[in-house]
Amino acid sequence: MILNTFVEPPLENNNYLLLDKDKKEALLIDCSHFDKHIIETLNENDCELKYILLTHAHFDHVMGVEATVKETGAKVVLNTADELLLKDLNSFTFMLGLPSVDVPIVDIFTTDNNEIEFAGKIIKVIHTPGHTKGGVGYLIDNNLFSGDTLFKESIGRTDLEGSSFKDIEKSIKSKLFTLPDDTVVYPGHGPSTTIGHEKKYNRYI
């Protein structure tokens, strides 16, 4: 499995492209911006983009979805608790002076502990409400893609509508911190970390 990280506008979001060259399959975790370099990487490796896995429905994680789907035919995956937030996408873009975008159509709605099969592997969906009601992490082998729930020595914002510090604290302590310490965490913004590091140095939890 090959991991490529694309740092995208509008807020320097990490979009993660995973490739399995043997099975010719790929998936994208979050899609902030339509990036031709992602398409080029897929073509260079002769891989089909099977899924776009959304960690949550905030505008900066989904603005490139519809254009990427039109180019690739990928299926869009989102937790059911963020469905209304996604539908309200353009109220956020309007408030921030950004152009309106097509609201993505979700093909697969998930709930906690759902599993997604990809290239012979099982991706576990971990529901982590707090930053949004439907925020999730995706666990693939020893790698956790945490969205905006857990960052290196920080956590996601809890001052937004639908967010809750109590919920995000519970999500991290009761779900993410039960993972092995050597689990690598790939957040929605900023550098990677590990569960063990965050247990020791994350002053917010």
Explain the layout of strands and helices.
Blueprint: E1 2-8, E2 13-20, E3 25-29, H1 36-44, E4 48-53, H2 59-62, H3 65-72, E5 75-79, H4 83-87, H5 89-95, E6 108-110, E7 115-118, E8 121-127, E9 136-140, E10 143-147, E11 150-151, E12 154-155, H6 165-174, E13 184-187, E14 193-194, H7 195-201
Parallel strand pairs: 3-4, 4-5, 5-6, 10-13
Antiparallel strand pairs: 1-2, 2-3, 7-8, 8-9, 9-10, 11-12, 13-14
Summary tags:
single chain, 205 residues, alpha/beta, Metallo-beta-lactamase, Chain A, six-stranded mixed sheet, 24% helix
The N- and C-terminal alpha carbons lie at a distance of: 32 Å
Helical content class = 10-25%
Strand order of the biggest β-sheet: 1-2-3-4-5-6
* Class by SSE composition: alpha/beta
What is the alpha-carbon Rg in Å? Answer: 16 Å
Shape: globular
At the fold tier of CATH, the topology name is Metallo-beta-lactamase, Chain A
Please report the first level of CATH classification, the CATH class: Alpha Beta
In CATH terms, the superfamily is Ribonuclease Z/Hydroxyacylglutathione hydrolase-like
User: What's the main sheet like?
Assistant: 6 strands, mixed
Q: Tell how many strands the DSSP assignment holds.
A: 14
**Overall pLDDT level:** 96
The total number of structural domains is 1
Give the low-confidence spans.
none
Element pattern in H and E? EEEHEHHEHHEEEEEEEHEEH
Can you offer a commentary on this structure?
The protein is of the alpha/beta class and 205 residues long. It has one domain: Metallo-beta-lactamase, Chain A, CATH 3.60.15.10. The chain contains seven helices and 14 strands. The chain has helices spanning 36-44, 59-62, 65-72, 83-87, 89-95, 165-174, 195-201, and strands at 2-8, 13-20, 25-29, 48-53, 75-79, 108-110, 115-118, 121-127, 136-140, 143-147, 150-151, 154-155, 184-187, 193-194. The strands form three sheets. A six-stranded mixed beta sheet has the order 1-2-3-4-5-6, covered by helices on one side. Strands 7-8-9-10-13-14 form a six-stranded mixed beta sheet. Strands 11-12 form a two-stranded antiparallel ribbon. The protein is globular, with a radius of gyration of 16 Å. The termini are far apart. The model has no long low-confidence stretch (mean pLDDT 96).
